[in-house]
Design a protein that fits this description.
five-stranded antiparallel beta sheet, two-stranded antiparallel sheet, 27 helices, 9 strands
Length: 643
């Protein structure tokens, strides 16, 4: 209770006198951690009486334990807090003080409201997250004395700098620079944060114009004219703050009705960019800002930001894959177009004589081609050299002589028999031709030594790899990247089985979207030959064998197991006979779960695909199912599921 007057008016009769008129205030900062309290009391009325009558008010005592706020009242000019212990709601303590000392004590309190509804409405508006956030940003932006203490200390240091030793000067310089950078980051960070709030619609354009005008030392009159306050200087931090703010909001504010104001602001920015009184760094920042606006607010290079651990891992693995692909391409290029081709070319030239260039001679593979392309190749018949009556070897026109082309020589030369050196040379040449006509045994290509086997991956690494594969696939389901990653992992012994093990384990305790991605990944890898039935059957068999443990941690584990079984049966990675073998392992400790496992798998296959497909799969293993469950139990499951 207090007089319903305008807030701020002083009335001497306020304290100690009740006006019997109810008014309302709100406060967002009523604490219960006072060092001293008055009490205990047995009721709220006793607390109020003690606050109103100093004669019956006991002396304050030290607060013991945690207190919880019960009531706050302003009565006869006294601000009264009533609290009770956390473990005893029937005992009360109070703290009170005159309203005239509210500001001195630091107690936040609102203006007076005549209506409780209005008071609550304003309170909720000003104390919402958005309201508190915007008020804080405004307070930080309007701080003008952030550098005051630093400037005073810097001035004092400059005056006594000469009297300090070199080590002391270095230490003080480093300390001052560190503090300056900290203040600068605080200012620029708040500027950017304000810009980001504007981009998501939490601030209006008018607020951003006020911010820009404040930074550029501009003011707007009531008529809408913008006046340049040239008598107010800007320091380096102000220039950088202007650039930071425009870099953040430029694209969002430079259009429509705001564009004329932006043109006006950039008129001053252009003057700053050529003003010799502005330091060089700030001038270049302004020039970059002008270029950015001329380019439609599209940066020339992407701004680098901090990355999460998952993003770093993805980048690292992507670089590894690229390096592996480049290495494979280089190896293939070497094997396909390197030494082997050169050796083959040399042999062709040796058989065909001067051999020309390959463009004229055609590809070396043409030697093996005929009209029946694609037919099995026949072994070359041995050509016996023909010797005439004089002992000379006749050269066949269809054979490739030493001086002819690969399509045959122009014809044999006519030789004369005499005892000259020329005859001996000719005979030597004939013997060489004879050797050329004899078939030579093909030399098998050298056997390539197997590549060294990579080290097995640890369980932690396999889990991390599986998690990364899921995350990438969920973000961008690219099968080529999935296959490439799996090919790299399969170089490590047991990696394929380990990936499946980590994936199916995670599938029992994750969100539906991630579980669907796991099943899709395993199915895709199997249908494309990247996984085998053994890779899937071993890890998934453990899920069935220990399903009783999984059900304790995840009540829907049986359902998830059934859905995965349905998918693996559908792609023929597993069959029902395998399922019966795994379910039989439950006989020792959890035999009662065996019918549930089979029943759930049947239902999941029907739900995920069709009744006809379920009939096909389970009809092929009737003997195994009767042996596992007994004919009566299996018939019951058949009737219950519609098989």
């Amino acid at each position: 209770e207090e007089p319903p007057t305008e807030d701020g008016e002083v009335h001497e009769s306020t304290e100690g006198i009740s006006s019997h008129n109810t008014v309302y205030r709100w406060s967002n900062d009523v604490t219960t951690d006072d060092a001293e309290v008055i009490g205990p009391f047995t009721s709220v009325e006793e607390c109020l009486d003690a606050a109103m009558d100093a004669d019956i008010c006991p002396e304050p005592s030290k607060r013991i334990g945690e207190l919880i706020l019960h009531t706050v009242k302003i009565q006869a000019g006294q601000f009264i807090k009533i609290m009770h212990p956390k473990d005893n709601p029937d005992e009360f303590f109070t703290v009170f003080f005159p309203m005239s000392k509210v500001e001195e004590i630091g107690q936040q309190i609102s203006e007076i409201f005549l209506s409780e509804i209005e008071c609550i409405k304003v309170c909720n508006k000003k104390n919402s997250f958005k309201g508190i956030l915007l008020n804080k940003c405004q307070d930080e932006f309007q701080k003008k004395n952030l550098y005051d203490d630093w400037l005073v200390e810097k001035k004092e240091y400059d005056e006594k700098k000469q009297s300090l030793s070199e080590s002391e000067r270095l230490e003080k310089d480093e300390e001052l620079e560190f503090r300056r950078m900290k203040i600068k980051k605080q200012v620029l960070g708040n500027i950017r944060f304000i810009g980001e709030l504007f981009k998501i619609g939490m601030l209006r354009v008018r607020v951003m114009r006020d911010c820009i005008q404040s930074l550029l030392r501009l003011t707007e009159t009531e008529s809408g004219d913008v006046v340049d306050m040239e008598d107010q200087d800007m320091d380096e931090e102000d220039h950088e703050a202007v650039c930071k703010l425009f870099n953040t909001i430029g694209n969002a504010v430079d259009h429509g009705k705001t564009k004329p104001y932006i043109d006006l602001y950039f008129g001053k920015i252009e003057r700053f960019s050529t003003d010799k009184n502005v330091n060089m760094r700030s001038r270049f920042l302004y020039k970059d800002l002008i270029d950015l606006r001329n380019a439609g607010w599209k940066a020339r290079r992407e701004e680098e930001t901090a990355k999460t651990l998952d993003e770093i891992k993805k980048d690292f693995e992507r670089e590894e894959r690229m390096a592996q692909m480049q290495s494979q391409q280089m190896n293939q290029s070497y094997r396909g177009g390197g030494r082997n081709n050169r050796d083959r070319d040399n042999r062709d030239r040796g058989r065909g004589g001067g051999g020309g260039n390959r463009r004229n001679d055609g590809d070396y593979r043409d030697d093996r081609r005929n009209s029946n392309y694609g037919a099995p190749r026949r072994q070359k018949e041995r050509v016996e050299p023909k010797v005439d009556k004089d002992g000379f070897v006749e050269v066949n026109k269809s054979s490739r002589g030493q001086g002819g082309s690969r399509y045959g020589s122009a014809g044999p030369k006519i030789l004369s028999r005499n005892n000259s050196n020329r005859d001996k040379k000719d005979k030597s040449k004939n013997r060489e031709r004879e050797r050329d006509t004899k078939p030579t045994k093909a030399v098998p290509p050298p056997r390539r030594s197997p590549s060294p086997t990579a080290e097995p991956l640890s369980e932690e690494k396999l889990k991390l790899k599986a998690k990364t594969m899921r995350a990438e696939f969920m973000e961008q389901p690219n099968e080529d990247d999935l296959f490439m990653t799996m090919d790299e992992l399969k170089k490590h012994p047991g990696a394929a089985r380990g990936i499946v093990q980590a994936s199916v384990d995670a599938a029992l305790d994750c969100k539906d979207k991630e579980r669907a991605a796991i099943v899709t990944i395993i199915s895709t890898l199997f249908t494309n030959g990247k996984l085998t039935s053994e890779d899937i059957g071993g890890p998934f068999g453990d899920i069935i064998e220990f399903i009783d443990s999984f059900v304790v941690d995840s009540p829907r584990a049986m359902e998830y197991m059934g859905d995965m079984t349905a998918e693996f049966l559908h792609i023929k990675a597993l069959d029902v006979a395998w399922l019966c073998t795994q379910a039989k392992k439950l006989e020792e400790f959890s035999a009662h779960l065996i019918p549930q496992v089979i029943d759930q798998c049947v239902k999941s296959l029907i739900n995920c695909y069709s009744l006809d497909e379920a009939k096909i799969h389970f009809a092929s293993a009737t003997n195994e199912l009767n042996a596992l469950l007994g004919q009566e139990k299996w018939n019951e499951i058949e009737r219950g599921t519609g098989l």
